[in-house]
Write a structure and sequence with these properties.
Two copies of one chain form a homodimer. By secondary structure, chain A is α+β, with helices and mostly antiparallel strands. Helix content of chain A is 33%, strand content 25%. Chain A folds into two domains: 17-271, L-amino peptidase D-ALA esterase/amidase (4-Layer Sandwich), CATH 3.60.70; 279-400, Roll (Ubiquitin-like (UB roll)). In chain A, helix 2 (86-104) runs parallel beside helix 3, helix 5 crosses helix 6 (248-271) and helix 7 (290-302) packs across helix 9 (317-325).
């Protein structure tokens, strides 16, 4: 059961974008598993990819093709990650792009490939090829909901959102879809997000705004600290509205909407982490540097002891404090650390707060959404991380998936 | 069920060391929970403590007292960690030391205090005081087995070992006991080890040899990446044998025995991690630096996806490779990475090895002891880490402990 998350009832078409969806039979039976997204000529496309040194073949090819410029198509399959597939994996990813160009014209280099699913199996390219004519024939502006569902692997609900943004020159649309369960799923390689707008955004600005939005959203979620081999987030600006994101004020408004969309989708991935029963927001303040604030947030978010305590609704402040203590913050004065869960002060002066009661702690830990505030008392830097608890179901899903 | 680990049948007395054991009722009923270890006058004592910034009161006091020199007593309680207890915790630890001096003479500063157990509760010092006369009266050389059991918290078996070491000047004894379940136990703060020898070892040499042995043993184990607030390892050399560890050859022999004792005790902690069903040795070779080899070993050892696959006996090489890829090794060439599980080659050239079969992989993963070899192909540096799998019981123990 996702935590406070339901599928959107509609997603707004983005002028300049058409989507096709097919059931190619890559792994799943009787469901769509292949998406073709077409963006208008002269769209600008920005992207952020996984930092894992072991990155999947489609990530390598998508990076190359994006650098060549002139992107017209995104080809996305679920069910197979095309990762750990060596040279043949690269050939398969390139062949898939070539099949798009064969049917729709242009060059294979104008196609970005994306794959998500099982690692270590070869992509069945003939099935991709067979599905291509139907995929091309079905391209339509209002296919976002179907595309959202086709990219799912073991997600339990589709993840999508649309925003209308009013700029000085008019109103533009921003729609995004994502799949993933926050690295939680075995072999499922893992997080993909595709966003599009009809605003006119220069390429450099687009990449800059995407980097900033991803940094504060998709890069702030963690389920188990494992990063995937296939992660990617793409933002296309078709310019079809003719409305420019140019002035500072427009830029702020557009960036805010982009941040909100990324934030919603990133949270959705954590909220749908199977096994997750609690949605946790870690706010670390008072760091000397953003880096040390982030290190503390990560140490707490990755601590299995903290995560199992959250699952048990156990206000176990000793585990949180121990995780803060081992985050590698040089010269940390534990007596200055203050920790609140929701509005309950639990730690101050290096120990349990005087007014704290177990009942108050248990009550706030019993909620499905738990904000944890950790103040380091060293400076003004902050970090925020979204995470979830660690439950029996996490072990079940990850241990039993292949049996 | 601990993995290939049984309690020792006997532990050798160490001339110059006497131990007393009492049931003080600190937390447990009807079992010993307090140990006093006396070392001969002019013993040299070396120690290694937790690096956690949030360290427990007894750790702070033990560090101070050790620096003052002239240590005669170690006072160890189980059931209460005296961690997260603020200023009162420090007073309580010092008061406990003072009670030893009151009964046995000397200064409070000659006593090192150690606590293990629940975090955040105050140490019941009056019970320590009440138990002191009996503890002192019962001091005896052959109490190692009882001491070993008294320091246990949720350990399922006592952990101890003795070695006789023949040096150029004669034979000496080395006995060690430890408690802990590798950071796996909730609130149980966590690993303590006490070693003693009757060899004559200069203080500087003793600390140097202990540092080296701990680095390759207790610092190479991980269950869940959480480090405790109370970890300590102490080595006392009473000199009662009159046999000096002086020549290079003696030093090598004694250091090897010390390493073997530490290695046994460190492994025992992982083998007794409740929830653990597999004992894993990660060997990383071919690193450019020891640090990068260790980073890779840690990334794999801490990966919940790898650990749940180990629990499921699933030879999921994609998860291992993905963990290697995210270890932050700059410029890692995945095509040079080779991974073997036992004698089965599973990964080479960035993907599944040609000769690999799932049957062979599953067979080797089904063992209770699994060595994993990861060759990075970049240089000559190595790292070795002991860990265990992640099972339902890990979640059960850590989620349900306080309920």
């Amino acid at each position: 059961m996702p935590i406070n998350l339901t599928e959107p009832t509609e997603l707004l078409p983005v002028p300049g974008v058409r989507l096709g969806v097919a059931a190619a039979g890559i792994r799943y039976r009787d469901r769509a598993d292949l998406v073709l997204m077409e963006v208008a000529v002269r769209s600008n496309v920005a992207a952020v990819f996984t930092q894992n040194a072991f990155c999947a073949a489609p990530v390598i090819v998508a990076r190359e093709h994006l650098a060549a410029g002139g992107v017209r198509y995104l080809l996305i399959n679920s069910g197979n990650a095309n990762a750990g597939t060596g040279d043949r994996g690269l050939k398969d990813a390139r062949a898939s792009c070539a099949h798009v160009a064969e049917i729709l014209g242009g060059q294979a280099e104008q196609v970005l490939p994306f794959s998500t699913g099982v690692i270590g199996e070869h992509l069945p390219v003939p099935r991709v090829r067979e599905a291509m004519p139907g995929l091309a024939a079905g391209l339509a502006a209002d296919n976002w909901m179907d595309a959202m569902r086709a990219i799912m692997t073991t997600d339990t609900v589709g993840k999508g959102i649309s925003r209308r943004v009013t700029l000085s020159g008019g109103t533009v649309t921003l729609t995004g879809i994502a799949k993933g369960s926050g690295m939680i799923r075995p072999d499922m390689a893992t997080m993909l997000a595709f966003l599009a707008t009809d605003a006119v955004v220069p390429a450099g600005d687009l990449q800059e705004m995407l980097n900033a939005a991803v940094e504060e959203s998709f890069n702030c979620i963690t389920v188990d600290g494992d990063t995937s081999t296939n992660d990617a987030c793409v933002l296309a600006a078709t310019g079809a509205s003719g409305v420019r994101v140019a002035e500072d004020d427009d830029r702020r408004r557009f960036a805010a909407a982009l941040q909100a969309v990324c934030d919603f989708l990133a949270q959705a991935i954590v909220r749908d982490g199977e096994g997750a029963t609690k949605f946790i927001t870690l706010h670390v303040t008072g760091g000397q540097t953003p880096d040390e604030a982030r290190r503390v947030a990560d140490a707490v978010a990755h601590s299995p002891l903290v995560k199992t305590a959250l699952f048990a609704s156990d206000p176990n402040w000793g585990r949180i404090l121990a995780a803060v203590g081992r985050a590698g913050v040089a010269g940390l004065d534990v007596s200055r650390v203050r920790i609140e869960i929701g509005d309950v002060l639990i730690v101050e002066g290096g120990g349990r707060a005087a007014a704290y009661t177990e009942e108050a702690g248990r009550q706030v830990m019993d909620q499905a959404e738990i904000p944890i505030y950790i103040h380091l008392g060293r400076g003004r830097s902050e970090a925020r991380v979204y995470t979830c608890d660690l439950s029996y179901d996490y072990v079940r899903i990850n241990a039993e998936y292949r049996s």
